[in-house]
Amino acid sequence: MVPVLSLLAAASFALSGCGQSDAQTSTTQSASPSQSSEPLTVSDTWIKTADSGMSAAFGSIRNTSDKDVTIVSAAAPVATMVELHETVMGSDGTMKMQAKQGGFVVPARGELKLEPGANHIMLMDLTKPVQAGDEVTFELKTSDGGTVTFTAQAKDFSGANENYTAGEGSGSATPAPSK
Fold first, then answer.
1. What is the mean pLDDT of each run of 10 residues along the chain (179 residues)?
2. At 122, is the secondary structure helix, strand, or coil?
3. DSSP string of 52-76?
4. Where is this region: Disordered (predicted)?
């Protein structure tokens, strides 16, 4: 009887772990390159919900070519300013966000992950609220003049309460409250 109960408990634990993992997996949209020669694909995309101020987008960018590709800018209709950001250790020992000088390099036959607390696409001065379930379209531009568009679905995320290096995130954009 004890081995049967142990087996049932283990199976129940395994199933609840799978369910929890599924709940954290976001709905994704893959990129549709707007130029057929563009070697980048974007997947596992999502954007943080925000009522106003700022938000950020995340996902994976894969390069299928034999050459590095540099993403130099991003745009989205829900924000007046969109920047490529990195997170670095500040001189005071705290993690801080700043614009990524030179853009994001996606290595040949490699992948670049955009994640909370790391590289991400920062949306500043939102023009309207980004609510859970909303779909936001992005356009990435590469150093060779190529473009890639993708759609990210908004989801609630309470993390990523960022700090900025001097001069970053200034202007009319203020951090959005956590959800």
1. 39 32 33 56 97 96 97 98 94 92 97 96 97 97 95 86 47 36
2. strand
3. SSEEEEEEEEEE-SSS-EEEEEEE-
4. 21-41, 160-179
How far apart are the C-alpha atoms of 133 and 155, rounded to whole Å? Answer: 6
59 part of a folded domain: yes
**Residue 6: inside a domain, yes or no?**
no
Q: Which residues of 105-140 are buried (b: 16+ CB within 10 A; e: fewer)?
A: ebeeeeebebeeebbbbbbbbbeeebeeeeebebbb
Q: In this structure, what token pair is assigned to residue 161?
A: 């309460």
Percent of the chain with pLDDT over 90: 63
Q: Are 163 and 150 a contacting pair, CB within 8 Å?
A: no
69 belongs to a structural domain: yes
